[in-house]
Please model this.
Amino acid sequence: MQQAPATPKIKRWRNLGLARLGILKADQNASLQPSERLALMVRGEKRARQSTASQVVFLLPLVRREHVSDWSLVEDNLLKTLMSFVNQSDPNWIAIICGQDRPSLPNDERIHFLPFDQPITGNDKWAKLAKLVEHFPKLARPSGYVMTFDADDLAHRDLVKQYLSIQHPNGYLIEHGIVHDTEADLYGQAGRPNLLNPLRKPFWKLCGSCAAFRYDPNEPKLLRRLITEITQHEHRMFPYLAKLAGRSLCSLQNSMIMYEFNHGQNFGLRRKRGSFKSRFVKRYRINDPSRLEHLLKGFS
Model:
């Protein structure tokens, strides 16, 4: 199973414009991807009255043991991620990890392991994500937010509290976040570009743990199919597909996620993409010690 290709930017803008005008239809354009067709179908559905979201669901695809050189490091990174959930100020969350090899897990009934035994040639992350989205309603409360999460990122302790306090009907997009180069021990601030930082990138362009989608029993079943299709794309497609579905995500401006890299098991680094992120951290380094201390307290 391969990652679904990204739609070129110019075509995304065109599709959104045509959708707003009511011109773009799911069954009238052969060039649309399956995710885009589903988004347009959801857009055409009448919105149902939602119940109150009461839980956040984290979905974590885990790399196969034989595909890494240091399994203990994978377990250590996963443990840090899971402890950032355990330490949430609002306890209303669950985490589901999907993989071939069961890792060491904290003794917490909110953490679940979903075995994966489907034979896949190449990267099986996308197949695991599809299985996670299919499976999570069996464990989750009927109404909440679902978020794919990389097994080496960290959640701010108030992430769940913020999601459930705002109660946005569509979900959330992480605009601002912290990028941590663990090898250099430097922290950079990702965020929406502004006059002082015109080339800065929003967090959702850098990290896959960047979006949460609303689910509800009163919503059409198409919505969960759409979430499955969305998660088959790279994270840069998430906000586009949500907008195309008429479900624009609520942008969060405070740093709710920390993306850690250069710890030895990042797949981006294996694909030679790490040098850009190291340069990014140096360029947008958080230099104020008191500000950095304040930010990091939320992840301790």
Summary: The chain has ten helices and eleven strands. Residues 30 and 37 are 10 Å apart (CA to CA). The mean pLDDT is 92.
